[in-house]
Amino acid sequence: MFESMNRRSLLKAGAGLGLVAFGSGVAGRAFAAAPRTLKINTLASAAAVNVPMQSALRSGLAKIEGYTAAEVRPTAKIPQIAQEVIAGAADLGDADVASTLAAAEAGADLKIIGLSYANTSQVIVVNADKTKSLEEIAKHGGAIAVNSIGDFMYVMLVGVLMKQKIDPKSINFIEMGSSGDRARALVAGRVDAVPMHVEQAAQLAQKGNYQILVRPWQEYGSWPSAGVIASGAWLKDDANKAAAVAVLKAVLGSFRKTDDDFDWYKSQVAEYASSKELKAADDAFLKPVWTTLTTEIKAFPKAMEDLNPDAFAKVLPVYKDAGALKGTVDLGKLIDRTYLEQALKDLA
């Protein structure tokens, strides 16, 4: 069905352009030789934790057999990445786990074949002059700004609240999509706590007594938050399988360089980070961030060890308790290490 739908779409497109698709003779051979682009959707903004993935996609990909080029397409709305992979508008996605889990549970034909990074670099930050704990926020009906209700940081935070026996309903969760807007709301005192990346927390700490209240990797050990995804139908094609392996080899190479070489990572931050301040950061600021990412968070595992059903299963109850999932997703079907194992074999 997948192939026939593509064929009809191509025939229709070809007719609109005045081409004879799949025909005999010169026109048919010309169509068969048409350039093929590997379409990869990724985040529109890159924090410190996203830099190795961006480096892999934008400068680390060698020529992929069967494709003439790789098109890396920035996507502003995170859930849209998974949606476009499902629709066939993108071949691969650097997608958030929350949207991917929800789509798979709803029946979407998706596979998580790699990690964009392991764990999460996002933390919960408060103004320590005003707030000392989540319990304190809950007692006065305080507010916490999140990107969106149901996203991975919201779910993670609800899980922490429940572990501390705090009713999540006692806190006002406010949707605020921009991390900059969330930081400004915290500084202005309009909210009591916000999620932000570790480097953003370090920057904010220079402006006042802003402290990290929750570190997810300490609460859960591992919190899968972003992965490389593809549709099961797309992966049936041999050329696509090879392309998936090639992308994962590039990502693994970037992970390993990041872990082993601060100077290389710094050069990639200067090239691919979205924040002007982060791009220009000196060693005194950036090296502690790199150390946190590589040794404490372990964001760039050399073999993507946490890409397995057991690691993801540990967080499913939290998603279920937060009302983000029913908990029925088949992780054994969703997570596929086949292409990762081939990439590891090729790199050995």
From TrEMBL:
Segments passing through the bilayer: none
Domain SsuA/THI5-like, first and last residues per copy: 81-251
Domain of life the protein comes from: Bacteria
Record protein name field: ABC transporter substrate-binding protein
The species this protein was found in: Chenggangzhangella methanolivorans
Upper taxonomic lineage: Bacteria, Pseudomonadati, Pseudomonadota, Alphaproteobacteria, Hyphomicrobiales
